Amino acid sequence: MLDYKISSKTIFQYLPEEIIQKILLYCDPDDISLNLQRVCRRLQTLANEPSLWRHNCHLEFRFWDIKHCIQDKYLWPVGYVDWKSLFRYRRKVDLKTTQLLNSIICTQKSRISKYEAIAEFGYDAKDTLLRHISVDENTEDVLARRYYANSVLDYLHRVNAIEIWQKTLDDKSVPVETAFGCFDLFILHNKRGDVSEVGRLI
Predict the structure, then answer these.
(1) pTM score, two decimals?
(2) DSSP-derived secondary structure for 156-199
(3) Distance (Å, rounded) from C-alpha 14 to C-alpha 8?
(4) Could you tell me if residue 193 is left (phi over 0), alpha (psi between -120 and 50 degrees) or otherwise beta?
(5) Are 32 and 59 contacting, i.e. CB atoms less than 8 angstroms apart?
(6) Using one digit for the tens of pLDDT, what is the confidence trace for 65-82?
(7) Across the chain, which distance is largest between two alpha carbons, in Å?
(8) CB within 8 Å of 87: residues ≥ 6 apart
């Protein structure tokens, strides 16, 4: 007869690793890092699988700064990249970008330097800015948040365009479609079609 007194923890321990890995794909990444991996050694091992964090990077973040060569990394064997560290870095960028944007909204002091600080993150900050642009209508500072998030994103696009054009002046290899696509960055705002998508659209 089945013993119904068996704890859920005991049942969980008998689940195949493949099943647990599938379950982890639906768990919040921050919850995995802060809580789940501390439950037991088995979960700690499974919670640090590169394939899990590769999935989270792909799911959570659409835009990546060029320095990551992210499209190449997605093609590499999963164990070649420290995906968990990459995910943590993007979370830190998200947090810092939000803090800087909040400060821009709250005070006029040092706004230019805060714009520049966000732009230093490159396209790693773009997902965060787009999220603030799409903030809920009931948010207390919705108009100011959307305005400044759009303003910072426009600044980020312009900086990106100028950096690409500077490469052409320095005789570095830049695809023609990318160089011409930079003109769109000055009117792009939060729409699709930036230089990271030009190659895929042509």
Answers:
(1) 0.84
(2) HHHHHHHHHHHHHHTT----HHHHHHGGGGGT-TTSS--HHHHH
(3) 10
(4) left
(5) no
(6) 999 999 999 999 999 999
(7) 79
(8) 29, 53, 56, 57, 60
